Structures are given as structure tokens and as C-alpha cells.
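Hello support,

Our group uses your service weekly, and this is the first time we've seen a run hang past the timeout. The protein is Glycine--tRNA ligase beta subunit. I'm not sure whether the cause is the sequence or the server load. Input pasted verbatim:
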Amino acid sequence: SLLPTIVEDSLNDLPIAKRMRWGARKEEFVRPTQWLVMLFGDQVVDCTILAQSAGRHSRGHRFHHPQDVRISSPAGYLSDLRAAHVLADFNERRQIISKRVDELATQQEGTAIVPPSLLDEVAGLVEWPVPLVCSFEERFLEVPQEALITTMQDNQKYFCLLDAEGKLLPRFITVANIESKDPAQIVTGNEKVVRPRLTDAEFFFKQDKKQKLETFNDRLKNVVFQAQLGSVFDKAERVSKLAAYIAPRIGGDAQRAARAGLLSKCDLSSEMVGEFPEMQGIAGYYYAKADGEPEDVALALNEQYMPRGAGAELPTTLTGAAVAIADKLDTLVGIFGIGMLPTGSKDPYALRRAALGILRILIEKKLDLNLVETVKFAVTQFGAKIKPAGLAEQVLDFIFDRLRARYEDEGVDVAVYLSVRALQPASALDFDQRVQAVQAFRKLPQAAALAAVNKRVSNLLSKAEGSIAQTVEPKYFDNANEFSLYSAIQQADHAVQPMAAERQYSESLARLAMLREPVDAFFEAVMVNAEDANVRANRYALLSRLRGLFLGVADISLLG
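Update from on-call engineer: The timeout came from a worker crash unrelated to the input. Re-ran successfully.
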């Protein structure tokens, strides 16, 4: 008696975006229901769900076996339907399609593009999958292959084929839902259906190429990016200037970055992108190439959107990296500048993704960019459109806060992140290098004790009265352990200075770990808060130097 309620509740809880009604009934589902099989053991469960009374009869394939199929038992469900040309197991259909598509692609001396989402969708559209090879006219290969692939995948649910060099072949694979006596007829039908789609793409491509890419900017002057921040063309001009600022600071060319930034949004007003939004950036690349723009400028028009998601591809050129960072940073500064901060549930301008994208580019491409100065420059580009007070700091905090989640995903303890964050490095690459060094330091046997000592020293220094001397005076030492620690600090300082200059943070911390023994001996034998004011002040200066050595990498006291 519980089963009908459980099943009905489960069906109602399915994440169906749009439900429908049919006939004069009030029931709603993704599609009209035709029959219902519900068995418990070999018994039919007496119930009515979604306007259907339960029974034990299903139906076979519409053409191969249009009769009812009696389901003998739950255990026989799959075999009973298979005998009627219905593969009821989704995973089995998926596997058959995947295997056969690969086989056919190999026969065509190509490789099939099989996105998991498309494979799932096709497996859900057929009950007796029969993949077939079709073709289209080679003249369509003059159109950017991404546009052809997009329309064949999204509109027709076809699997496209690439040659050994990654170029699109004039063939594709469709998955029929029938074992036809005349498969050529199905092939011809699909070839006939796809032709108008490809013709449209060809038309848009040819229309766009009748004018220079840069002329598309004129249309963008009337397209709003954000009401308070101006048009898309205004954004392109800001991105151009910001990219020109960034490029030479990461080893790129300012002039080419500026050019790429100016052209970066042009294709948004093209016919191609109007019909195929997924082509933004890609269309720009092809049009820029046709106009004779430098290769890195053309590539940057597509690379500006990278990474397009978690783990996605990064820009391959410095020009592309500069424009990608500039585009994302411009959005961050602008949206923060008008007070539209993201909330826990809403982030309409994808600011979190933009911040993570900037960090990934800088860290994974090893680009040493001073984000503090760059963000300040970006703020100046908006003039009176934004409120600049405290804006740069707010944006920087938001960007560097994204690193916390990134490192947690990588298994880095939050204390490690906080120890570096305390120093507020200006470069994301520098930040990451410090994190990796501290992570390695924690594995050393001396790490825990030195972290505790740093915490103790930090507490002592915070309670010191007045300013702490910058220099240590050996004449005030009255204990051999003071001399030992002072000597060890001098040697360590001399050793780590060149390491710090080269950002060899791991080596630096490994060398500082050698201070554990003289530090332990010092605290065992020396009372820091001596009665003599000069001795006490000198000991504070000594400990300040000790702490300063570690602060050259991170605030190790936060690891305790």
C-alpha cells in the first residue's frame, strides 16, 4: 500500500523544468503518459498514477514490434522488452551508441566528437539505436568548423567527425531508432535535413566577411553592457587600455594587446554570433584572420573568454592572457563600483568565475602580475561612473578570497592559506609560490615547534611597550644562548636573502627550520622580560628579527 505513494511522490519530485497537461485531465508530467507497468514480485500493484491504471503490459518498438509486451516479472523486464526491440536499460543504449560511433568513425579514418551530454541526450531519444554515417558537401568546410559542429550537435543531435589533424570531415553520424531494410533512405533524409542548417551558417559567414571586423564596433555603441557602466563599445575601449597596461608586465606586447582589446567584442554584433551565440570569440578569430590581423591578436579574441569553466583551457598567447585578464577585471571593478556585489544565491555577472579565471591564468601560466597596481589602474578607467573610494581594496579582497576555496579543493589546510594571506602578496603567482612552500614546510619535523614559537613571539611583541628597536646590540647579551641565537639568525639571514630575491620560498623555510635548536635553547634559558630595560628591549629586537625572517615567506604563527 506504500508503493503507489512512494512512486507518485518520486515522480512529482523529478527536476522537470516544464511540465504539461494533456486532454482534460489535471495531471502534469514531462510528456503524456500512455501506460503504466507496476509489479511487486509477480503481482500487479493495484493503483492509478498519472491517469494510468497499473498493469503488466508494456509495448514493443513502434515498427519492429507494435504489439503489447507482457512483463512476466521484474527480473524479466529487460529481456521481455529486448525481445520486442526495446533496450530499456539507458546505460546499455549509451554503451552501444558509444561503441558503434567509435567503430564507424574509425572506418571513416576519423575520430568522433562525443560530448557526454550529447551522448546522454541521444541515448534518451532512441530505444533501439542504430548509428549510420552520413555526409554533406565539402563546400561547407569553408565555414568555421565550430559553427558547423555547433549546429549539427545542438540542432540535429549528430556526432561530427574530425581527421587526424583535428579538421572537420564532411561526414557525420546520426543515430536512427530503427533497423531499416533501406538504411540509405534514412541517410539521405538526414543529409537533406542538415543542408539548410549548414547553408544558413555559410550565409551568415559570407555576409559578415563583406565588411571589416572593426566596423562591427559601431553597432556596439548602441548595445548596453550595463546601464550605469555604458555600452559594450565602452567596455571594449576600457579593456583595450587595461590590456595594454597588463601585457608588458607579463612579457607581452602592449600595442597588440590594445588592438585585440579594441576588437574583442566586435563579433557580438555579427550575423554569425547572432544565430550561434556559442561562436562569440571564435567568429572574431576567423574574421580577424581574414582581415590580416596578427595571429596572437586573432587568437586573443577567442582566448578572452578563457577559461570558460572549471578546469577548462587557458589562453595560449600572452596577448590572449592580457585581454582575458583585462576583460574579467573590468567587469569585476565595474560591477563592484556600482555596488552590485554578488550574494550567496545570486551572481548575475559571474564575478566569482571571473575572479577564479584571473587567478588560474596568472598561477597556471606563471604570470607575475602585480594585481594591486593593476586593479587601481582599472578603477581609473571608469571615471565618474563608479565610486572609487575603497573599491580597489574591495575587489582585491574578493579576488584573493577565491583562493581559499581553490586551495581547500586541493587539500591545502586553511591555516596555510591564512598564513600567506596575512602578508597580502600583490601577485597571485607569488601567493601560490608561498602557499606551496608553507605546505612543504609543514611536513618538516621542526614545523610544529617553530609555528608555536612564532605564535609565542608574536604575542610577546604585540605586548611590547613602545617601538621595538631595528638593530640588535650584542653588548646587552648576558646569556650564552642569546649569542647563539643571534649568531644563528645572522647566518640564516645571510643565507635566505638571495633565496628571497629569487622567491625560493621552500628553500628559505627549509633553511629557517634549522633555527629550531637555538630558538628552543633561548626560551629554555632566557627570560625575555628582563628587569633591565636595555636588556629587555634588546631581547625584543632579537625576537623581532627572528620573526621577520619567517615573515619573509608567511606568518608561520598562524599554523599553530
